[in-house]
């Protein structure tokens, strides 16, 4: 089936969106559309112009025999700020206050579109970090982790508190929960993370940072390097954090249970601005 | 910024892909592109033709004052069969056999692209079921659940074995694990599922069906109806299943630990073919 330009543009757009962070040779498209490479190059130029004009991501082209095209999902700074500010406002709803000063966040975490949009902010931040695996802690870190992983085109390793029998040999470590000062265990299936990966850690919430610190130590057991850690919401904590190399999307600066007042601000990812 | 047709097609394609199962008025696009509705209608015709020609999904248009366009992700039967057959082959690798006759599947579940592709098969099957929430069991059902939820444009409710303190009031039920005959507890935060939702249950694995049965009962506690249940891999089980209204993508028909042989076939979703 031969495609006219209009059909090629539609198909090429969906193909690139569904294959982020992958180098696709021009020959792939010229065979797919039975079209000359020169036409394909023009098509790519149009896609690139539209994507970059609308801040949908970068379309990187490379020339030569191995020439091709790569779609890198990014988000413009303005869009990122707008999305995170909306989230802050949403999180400040006093109806979220739970006993113990916890915040109800499952509606945000349960919204796949919100996870995708926020995942894009993180994937954009780490676009050049050479991430080749995402590590997260079950349960509530998983949705954001998959959103980021999909955009960076890397697999996810799910760390757990339990020691499940259905995943073969596991690696467990003890760690000290920073806020509760309790010794806990976290485990990861030996097979679920390739040794010497460059890991990006994703989680939904961080207080003192004990869980993140634990995941960093666990990564070391797999000879992995840590590209960074990104947190949906970081609670501002009076004591020293157990980790320093992380970014947060939002900062929970105050939960006043008595006055029923929550204050949420942009996280450290935006600090440099 | 005025768009030429080529730019409109690229942007409209990405917009529809990112907003599945949503009715988008023509006026939205004519304002977005500062273009006449007649041009927008032609654009949509081109997108529709390409999407449907490539089996990428349906583009439904409606006329009149409230006229608009809706993208419904579907997968052609051939593509679905090809994807599921590939999965079956992958799962038959004897290296997956774990003690107790379990199967290592975290590599498949940990692959966001595989989850998206398989999620599309399920979202396609339930495209007209009026699903308005996905329910899944932590941990391993979550990735597939989010893939389906994103395509159906509905939220996810995560049921858990533990009773976490950070989600406010929870609803718990006891259920009997079908294969182990043990009484267990599952819980869902009261706030995390709107009453009277039409729920699609997603899980990674099913043996006797006790967990699925439990989630169906739990749904009832929220006055929800159950649109169906979809399972990544169903183990063929000698005893009667505890549920009947479900579909599976794959069927594990044999795990011979001694001979190190696994047999995996297409699941019940394909039975009618």
TrEMBL record, chains A, B:
InterPro entries: PRTase-like, PRTase_dom, Pur/Pyrimidine_PRTase, PuR_N, PurR_Bsub, WH-like_DNA-bd_sf, WH_DNA-bd_sf. Keywords: DNA-binding, Transcription, Transcription regulation. Residues 112-253 form the Phosphoribosyltransferase domain. The keyword DNA-binding applies. The keyword DNA-binding applies. GO terms for biological process: negative regulation of DNA-templated transcription; negative regulation of purine nucleobase metabolic process. This is Purine operon repressor, PurR.
């Amino acid at each position: 089936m031969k495609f006219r330009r209009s059909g090629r543009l539609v198909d090429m757009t969906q193909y690139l969106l569904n294959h982020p962070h992958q180098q696709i040779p021009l020959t792939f498209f010229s065979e797919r559309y039975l079209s000359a490479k020169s036409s394909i190059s023009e098509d790519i130029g149009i896609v690139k112009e539209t994507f970059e004009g609308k801040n949908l991501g970068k379309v990187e082209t490379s020339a030569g025999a191995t020439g091709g095209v790569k779609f890198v999902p990014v988000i413009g700074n303005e869009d990122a700020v707008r999305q995170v500010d909306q989230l802050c406002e949403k999180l400040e709803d006093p109806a979220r206050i739970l006993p113990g000063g916890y915040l109800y966040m499952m509606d945000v975490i349960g919204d796949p579109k919100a996870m995708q949009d926020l995942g894009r902010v993180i994937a954009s931040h780490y676009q050049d970090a050479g991430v080749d695996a995402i590590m997260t802690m079950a349960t509530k870190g998983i949705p954001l982790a998959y959103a980021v992983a999909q955009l960076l085109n890397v697999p996810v390793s799910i760390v757990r508190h339990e020691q499940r029998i259905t995943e073969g040999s596991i690696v467990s470590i003890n760690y000290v929960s920073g806020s509760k000062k309790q010794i806990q265990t976290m485990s990861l299936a030996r097979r679920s993370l390739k040794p010497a990966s460059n890991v990006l850690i994703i989680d939904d919430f961080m207080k003192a940072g004990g869980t993140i610190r634990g995941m960093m130590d666990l990564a070391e057991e797999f000879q992995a390097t840590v590209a960074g850690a990104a947190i949906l919401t970081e609670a501002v904590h009076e004591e020293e954090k157990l980790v320093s190399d992380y970014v947060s999307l939002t900062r929970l600066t105050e939960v006043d249970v008595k006055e029923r007042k929550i204050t949420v601000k942009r996280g450290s990812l935006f600090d440099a601005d």
